[in-house]
Amino acid sequence: MPKNETKNLLFFLLPYLILFLLLFAFALSYSLILSFTNMSPGRPLEFTGATNYARLFGDPLVWNGFKVVSTVLFIQVPIMTGLALILAILLSSPLIRGKTIFRTIFIIPVMTSLVAATLMWYPMFGENYGVINLVLTGIGLPGFKWLLDPTLALVSIFTVITWRWTGYNMIMFLAGLQAIPRELYDAAALDAGRLQTVRHITLPLLKPIIIFSVVFSIIGSLQLFAEPYVLTGQGTSAGFATYTVAIRLYNIGFIQGQFGYASAIGWFMALVAVCGTFFFLKRLGFFARGE
Known about the structure:
- The protein is an all-alpha fold.
- The protein has a domain at 59-174 and 209-283: MetI-like fold (Orthogonal Bundle), CATH 1.10.3720.
- Helices cover 72% and strands 0% of the residues.
- It has helices spanning 3-34, 51-57, 60-91, 99-111, 114-121, 131-138, 150-178, 182-191, 194-222, 226-231, 245-255, 259-283.
- Helix 3 crosses helix 7 (150-178), helix 4 (99-111) crosses helix 7 and helix 9 packs antiparallel against helix 12 (259-283).
């Protein structure tokens, strides 16, 4: 690249780089420093070493939060990813009409505000006047305490997350399906059925997008906050069954004002996300093949 073009490129990148350094790199570094202090309003700032991290390992609510996150990751994420993949394959079929309408319907939840989307479901899960219980009692079945029972509260959270994010993953899979050469399907149609075609052509060629979707879900699961916070009273109405790590961080940092400890929780969450992503990619042989 000529020097003049390089200078022009750096000139246009400079505002972004400045904002990145001020708003991201500085904040990230500052939070790391805070995680080794007792930072709290009204108290003298003191360096406490790894005290916050030692406290973290003895905090039952933090580990309860990781348990909830793990449940979401190992149960809800596979269901959502599989559903998104099935919908993408169906909507890429030439036999389906009105594809634009269906795509719009599935992508609308993603475009809705997270809190607003969650609040939309609150009347659905009400015990006495919830829409779901009214339907169940209308057909002679008993109603349920969806947001008070520990298991059903998790099911409710799974439902909202799946409703909101399935369309996002479906759109990604649709983009990947459109990039697969049609000639491969035409050749496979001569010797293989639809299921074999999906197994031996569609899934292998969609693997990078599926990996991206799962990695994104790992990070998103650790950051799960709005759905349990809004639906289940800060995650406590069902006996902490929906109390996530992000809610614990919020309560420690913004309710109790213990910014040092909250920073330690945040950095530990980031470490878990990195390690979890690395383990997932390594299990797939991602690094071994140099992909």
